[in-house]
């Protein structure tokens, strides 16, 4: 640099700084059609674009991503990825980099974000309980140990965000549903409700009113009306499966708010080759639909016209589609080996299906059931699109 011309030197330095800044500035674009695909075997996520059905890049260094789960920041720019090793990683979708990563527990099973987007809350097996973190910095804010009796801690499952800075979740070992209010983030308060034997997962209805926990240790589902929590938990479908011999359960089914279609809730039956249909106006069984095997995910298309189902081993290479008006299976597909997850585009014209052992994600047209494209991926599992950022219970 020529020091005899100080103004030229300053201009050159400014230009270099500007170029350096540009090299780290993401292209100007929105995030509404972005998402991530979990690559569990390599501890990475692919950042994907569901408008152009393409991968934008890969972010590595996320640890053990078996049974990984993700939720999104309020502005849908950042994915918070919860790893099984207790890792919580904040991924910037635009720069495709890790913005922040911490190890918050020994064994984590997922998480959620508060109504105002200020708190990220993780649910943990070890130590049992939930922990809240600042969504910007991932600094710890507070925690609620799942100590249901002196010295006894429970695994936490089925965490769902609720209106009013609250979270509902189930305690597998305690047989309880807890609702924790983080309105005062450093001093959360918790209400406890008896649920039944071994709740294995939970969901909240899209309006945030009802929380349901599936029971593994007995027939039935625990239902809590969050508008009237003083009434306690109500058991529904208590008689389901009575007198029938259950099959061995090869994989615990999952529940989430995407199982709601119109007035119906579609839920996987534990130990049965059936999908349960509940009329949410009366919370009674409306039907049970025979399907190919034990269902794992039962997911309604956003317009509620179809429900897509995948299955546990050894039939985990299949997917079936249920027509909601007729409650009949109308299509059976083979997307690949070990189908682990499905995710609809925000308006439901396509669904992305991960096949772990085939190392691919197939994008299907939900009207014709024809594959539109196939994306290579390294042992893909969960697929999470950013439209989850604006939905209750995700």
TrEMBL record:
Q: Name one Pfam family in it.
A: Cytochrom_D1
Swiss-Prot/TrEMBL keywords: Signal
- InterPro entries, A to Z: Cyt_cd1_C_sf, Haem_d1_sf, Host-pathogen_enzymatic-act
Q: Indicate the secretion signal residues.
A: 1-29
Q: Which domain of life is it from?
A: Bacteria
Is Electron transport among the key words of this record? no
List, alphabetically, the CDD domains matched.
Answer: 8prop_hemeD1_NirF (cd20778)
| Name the record gives this protein | Protein nirF
| Organism field | Nitrogeniibacter mangrovi
